[in-house]
Each structure stands twice: as C-alpha cells, then as structure tokens.
Write a structure and sequence with these properties.
This protein is an alpha+beta fold. It is built from ten helices and eight strands. It starts with a strand and ends in a 5-residue tail after the last helix.
C-alpha cells in the first residue's frame, strides 16, 4: 500500500535536511531515481525471498488507477468504469499466472534475483530517501503535480503532506542527522564508547548504526533491534565492499565544510560518507 512518513527532520538556521521512509509501486522506481539530489536505498527483489513477495502481492497487489489512452505522456483522464473493471480483472489474472510461473521457477532452483523480477508489476516497494529542503522542493514540484504519472503522484502527495506536517529538530554545530536512531540507541552508544571496544567515538557509532539500518531496508528489516556490535560490523562490511550509499543518509552540521556529495553544495550538512573517506 501507499504510505509515507518522515523518520528524521533536522534544521540548522534556515537549511533543512529530511529523511523519508515511503512505499510506492515498484514500476515507478525509475522515476524516483531521476531525482539525483536525493540519497536513496530501497527494498530489493534480489534480497527478499520469493514467498514473502508472493504473499504481499496476493494480499495487497498494486493495481493502477486506470487511465485512458492519449497522445503524449499525460493520459486523457480516468478510464470508464466498465473498462476499468475489466482491466483490473485481467491484471489480477496475469498476477495469478505469474505467481504460478515463479513458484515453478523457484522449485527448479532458479535464484530469487531472476524469479522475483516477474512479480514486480504487482509489487509495492519501500524506500528510504534523504535530501535537503531544496531537493525535496524540486521533487514535489515535479511529482506532486497534475501532469505526473498518478502512480508516483499519489506517493509524492503523501510525502508532501508528511513534509509539511513535520516539525524539524533544531540543530547546533556538530549535531547529527541520524535516521532510524532512537533514544535507547544513544544510551547504548555511550556505554559502548566508554568501554573503548571499537575505538570509535559516540557520534560515529550512531552513524554506523544508522547506516546499517538504512542498508537493511534491502531486506525490509530496517526496524529490527540489533546489538551495537552487529550494527557496526555490518556498516564496516558495507564500506569495505564499496557499498557506500547507506552512509549518505547521515550528516553532521559543519558550516563551511568542503565535502562533496549530494549535500556538498547545500551547506551546512556534511555527509557521513565523505567524512569516512570515500569523497567521490
């Protein structure tokens, strides 16, 4: 189903940094990815077992709000009621056929990264995305618009409403924007820093934990409670293997910084990714 929530909202002076978690149809992820000023991670068809996806599209399949054919990109309004009903009937029949096909493929040993692709037309997917106020204004201007594809437009409207309703946390220099970090995590990080176990200071421990959770959205396990050791280990493995994108959602208020990246031209936020040495 469609849904959207702000999971981190930070403001330093007049500049704002916001992280969303939201659901939208898998078929319009490409349109989301054209917003290059946003940092993103999403649920993966390669990572989620086929039976979980099948269960999801049986109980809550994506069905378009059918629109009428027209020249150009913008449809000619809604399809009539009778045609819409028949289109939905055929769409669900195609889903059932493809579910049976995927089950046969899985039974013969086909990997989920191959088999699951045929389920994507009926899938919703979950995305975590982070951007500055300027980046979100660009996104809403394009996607929360009458000419946008309704499949992404509906998600954009929910996000825009959540954005307008959210109250940013006022930041000082040195404060961190940390998606998925709760108060209990801060207490655990302080205890871990005091033991000197990892040789990582408190704020960087939290940033590692946040990055690990942003990465686990691939498996839809981003809200699981895991140990500090597991979170830090996972984040370090990601960086070591070159998977830097989950470290783009965390940022520290650092006025005058010269870090690159999606927030590099939107001071004062410096991405964790660039503070730990990638610097693309």
């Amino acid at each position: 189903m469609y849904k959207a929530s702000v999971i981190a909202d930070s403001r330093y002076k007049r500049k704002r940094l916001v992280t969303f978690e939201f659901n939208l149809p898998k078929c319009v992820v490409a349109e989301m990815n054209t917003s290059r000023s946003l940092s993103r991670n999403s649920a993966s068809s390669r990572a989620i077992p086929s039976d979980r996806i099948i269960s999801a599209i049986e109980s809550d399949p994506f069905i378009p709000e059918w629109t009428a054919a027209n020249k150009g990109m913008v449809a000619a309004g809604h399809l009539n009621e009778n045609a819409s009903r028949e289109a939905t009937k055929d769409c669900l029949a195609a889903r059932d056929y493809m579910i049976a096909y995927v089950k046969r493929q899985v039974a013969r040993g086909v990997s989920k990264q191959d088999a699951n692709r045929y389920l994507e037309p009926w899938m919703f997917t979950t995305i975590v995305a982070t951007g500055t106020d300027r980046a979100w204004e660009w996104f809403f201007g394009l996607r929360d618009h009458g000419d946008a594809d309704p499949k992404i437009g509906k998600a954009a409207r929910l996000m825009h409403e959540a954005y307008d309703d959210s109250k940013p946390r006022e930041m000082d220099e040195g404060d961190w924007h940390l998606p998925y970090i709760k108060e209990g995590d801060r207490e655990r990080a302080i205890e871990t820093e005091c033991t000197g176990k990892y040789g990582i200071r408190y704020t960087f421990l939290l940033a590692h934990m946040s990055a690990a959770r942003c990465a686990r959205i691939s498996y839809l396990r981003q809200h699981e409670d895991r140990s500090v050791a597991d979170e830090v280990s996972r984040a370090c493995e990601l960086v070591k293997s070159g998977h830097w994108s989950p470290t783009e959602h965390q940022a520290v208020v650092m006025p005058g910084h010269n870090q690159g990246g999606n927030f590099g031209n939107d001071q004062p936020f410096a991405q964790f990714r660039h503070l730990i040495g990638d610097g693309y």
